[in-house]
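Re: that chain you flagged

S.,

Sorry for the slow reply, it's been a week of failed gels. I finally had a moment to sit down with the sequence you sent. For the record, here it is as I used it:
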Amino acid sequence: MMELRPDSAASWGGRPAEPGAVAPEPSEVRVKLSELPDGLAVRVEGGQHGICVARVGRDVYALVDRCSHQRWPLSDGEVSASDLTVECTKHGSTFSLRDGSPSCLPATRPVQVYQTRVEGDEVVVTVQ
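Prediction finished late last night. Pasting the structure tokens below so you have them in one place:
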């Protein structure tokens, strides 16, 4: 069974919610483990902008499939197993798979990450 990292809990660097706003109910998106090649990013439909799911060895990470710099799909990018990052192919910004933080310019804002867990032969991504 895959070991999932507890540090892939959702974090978001966006603006605060409006007073009185109600947070949307979390939803779950499922993807077969067999559809997640080791060391690659895959786009999965879900959330507002799609989900970039990356498998690195025994760990699976999920983040919004949209660069915070120019809204390019992160699932098109290269995954670095050694740095645990995904690179945006538009301008070369890299984002941590663990917490969504950018590690180089031009991006300066993090991207949202989603919690993942394994159930049988599926990865469950909780989208909030």
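What I noticed first: The two ends are 25 Å apart (CA to CA).

Talk soon,
D.
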